[in-house]
Amino acid sequence: MIQLEHLYKSYDEGPESHEVLHDINLSIRPGEVFGILGSSGAGKSTLVRCINLLERPTKGKVIIDGKDVTDATGKKLSALRSSIGMIFQNFSLFQQRTVLRNVTFPLELNRTPREEREQRARRLLTLVGLEEYADRYPSQLSGGQQQRVAIARALANNPRIMLCDEATSALDTTTTVQILDLLRRINRELDVTMVVITHSLAVARNICDRVAMIDGGDIVEMGPTEELFSDPHSDILKALIASDGAQNRRDTNTTDSTTEEEK
Ligand SMILES: Nc1ncnc2c1ncn2[C@@H]1O[C@H](COP(=O)(O)OP(=O)(O)OP(=O)(O)O)[C@@H](O)[C@H]1O
Ligand SMILES: [Mg+2]
């Protein structure tokens, strides 16, 4: 369980202080796929980076499995970080390392013996469907394959939680669906709780059990995905749903020039 209680975050403390998150309260249940939806600059990345303390909240609490970790340092902080995997839009792979050595990297940091870390990495590469690619370099892979490597690396330490910051934003529709299927499988089979940042309604619909809509650093609404999307209350979500509908109609019109209304 991930709990954020009365969480505030400001950048640049002092007179220039700029508050990016205001009084965020939320509970993410174990085993859930939880979506954070919002437009650019809304504070999504900041919020998620507070969960693994890549950003320190200015005020409020981060509670993981009942333990207040807000002020964790040293070994406690390292243990927290290794129990939480993270993936990004730009994959963030080490270009000078092979696929295998990207996945072994977190295990090198915690001094797992070489044979064990290679075995683990190969098992994870099999899980993400890349067992044949162990000796290639990231630049020799497609975007979707690179994201699979990043997913395998994020799983190296057996995390209970995975944070996905716009993990599919750089990928085409087909590849996006494949990556979301993989994340869903990891959620179910490995029982990893997922926090998925997206600005895409399609991504949220595809994978998220519940969604929080954030706007200007506030959670403006939150609920089970289908419920929220079928009865939105905030202007921002209403606008997002309307523009998504218009986009879908445009897409349909370009692939099939006869619309339902014309038939
Ligand atoms: N390290 C930082 N120092 C100062 N301001 C920052 C920092 N990181 C983010 N901000 C500001 O905080 C606000 C929220 O940024 P954040 O990256 O959390 O938004 P986001 O919702 O993830 O946006 P996007 O969809 O574009 O990734 C923005 O106004 C941004 O300029
Ligand atoms: Mg962001």
TrEMBL record:
One record GO biological process: amino acid transport
Native source organism of the sequence: Bifidobacterium tissieri
Region (Disordered) location: 242-263
PANTHER family recorded: AMINO ACID IMPORT ATP-BINDING PROTEIN, METHIONINE IMPORT ATP-BINDING PROTEIN METN
ABC transporter domain boundaries: 2-241
PROSITE patterns per record: ABC_TRANSPORTER_1 (PS00211), ABC_TRANSPORTER_2 (PS50893)
Key words of the record: Amino-acid transport, ATP-binding, Cell membrane, Membrane, Nucleotide-binding, Translocase, Transport
Lineage: Bacteria, Bacillati, Actinomycetota, Actinomycetes, Bifidobacteriales
Entry protein name: ABC transporter ATP-binding protein
Molecular-function GO term, any one: ATP hydrolysis activity
